[in-house]
Design brief:
By secondary structure, the protein is mostly helical. It is about 75% helix and about 5% strand. The chain contains 5 helices and 2 strands, in the order H-E-H-H-H-E-H. About 10% of the residues are buried.
Length: about 170
C-alpha cells in the first residue's frame, strides 16, 4: 500500500468517524472517481484530440529522422569493409548527429506535451472538484470519497457519471 493511498484512506476514515461523533447518525457518503471523471469529460477528449493533431508534425519529423538513422546504420552494416575509412567516418558522424538531433527532438516533444497536458489537467481537475462539491451540496452528501482510496462501495454511491454530465453542462465544448 502506498503512503499516498494510506493517507487518503486515513483521512476518509477520520472524516467519517468525526461526522459520526458529531451526532450525525445518518452520514451520507458518495464516491467519485476523479480520474475517470476528468478524463471522461468532453473538454478533455477534445483537448486530447487537438494535442494529437498539434504534435503530429513533430512526431512525423522524428519518424523521418529515425528512418534516416536506420538507413545510415544499414549502409554501414551492408558495406562493412567495403567503405574507405573516410566514408565510414563520415557515415558514423552523420549517424551520431542524427541520433543527437533525434534525442533532442524527443526530449523537447515530451517536455512540451507534458507541460500542456499538466496545464489542461490542472484546470480541469480544479473545475471538476468544484462540480463535485456542488453535486454534494445538491444531493445533501456529507462526504465524497475518491474511488482510488476506497476498498469497497455499492455502485449506487458512485456519482462519477453525474459529475461528468454536470461538468460537460457547465463547461460545454466549443
Amino acid at each position: 500500500m502506498s503512503v499516498r493511498f494510506g493517507l487518503r484512506l486515513a483521512v476518509a476514515c477520520l472524516a467519517l468517524f468525526s461526522l459520526s461523533k458529531a451526532g450525525l447518525s445518518q452520514t451520507k457518503v458518495a464516491i467519485v472517481s476523479m480520474q475517470r471523471a476528468v478524463l471522461g469529460c468532453a473538454e478533455i477528449k477534445k483537448a486530447s484530440a487537438e494535442m494529437e493533431i498539434k504534435y503530429k508534425p513533430r512526431q512525423q519529423e522524428m519518424d523521418k529522422l529515425q528512418r534516416e538513422l536506420a538507413s545510415i546504420q544499414q549502409q554501414l552494416q551492408s558495406n562493412a569493409g567495403k567503405l574507405t575509412p573516410a566514408a565510414e567516418a563520415d557515415l558514423n558522424a552523420q549517424g551520431q548527429r542524427k541520433q543527437r538531433d533525434l534525442q533532442r527532438m524527443d526530449d523537447d516533444l515530451k517536455a512540451d506535451v507534458t507541460a500542456e497536458r499538466n496545464e489542461i489537467l490542472g484546470t480541469s481537475g480544479r473545475r471538476m472538484r468544484e462540480i463535485v462539491q456542488k453535486l454534494a451540496e445538491e444531493k445533501g452528501v456529507d462526504v465524497i470519497v475518491d474511488e482510488q482510496s476506497t476498498l469497497f462501495f455499492k455502485p449506487a454511491l458512485d456519482l462519477t457519471a453525474e459529475a461528468i454530465t454536470a461538468y460537460d453542462k457547465a463547461y460545454p465544448v466549443k
